[in-house]
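Human:
Take a look at this sequence-structure pair and walk me through the tokens.
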Amino acid sequence: MRHPFPDDVRQFVESANWTFAKTYAATWPHEYVVRTRENVDLVLALARHIFEHGVKERFYSKVFKYHHEGGKVYWSMDPTPEATDLINRCDGRSHRPRAPRT
């Protein structure tokens, strides 16, 4: 079942200043937003939504929750919403689970 972002979280992801992750431009182009004093409540709300409603997908040997919405994919690489200090997102067309390396 699809669980869209609550209005406040949707407004946050639409208005936040996302930073392009230059280090991964060639291998996995994506962008991120960092938790700050000003956005801590909304980053936590976004992380909680991802953890609660996201789908489990592989990232090599690890499994993370990914939330697909509005043509984008959102994820945290932290163990809990409370530990999340940044949220990543990428274009849904370029997203694909990564198989474990052999």
In short: DSSP finds two helices and six strands in the chain. The CA atoms of residues 7 and 13 lie 10 Å apart. The mean pLDDT is 89.
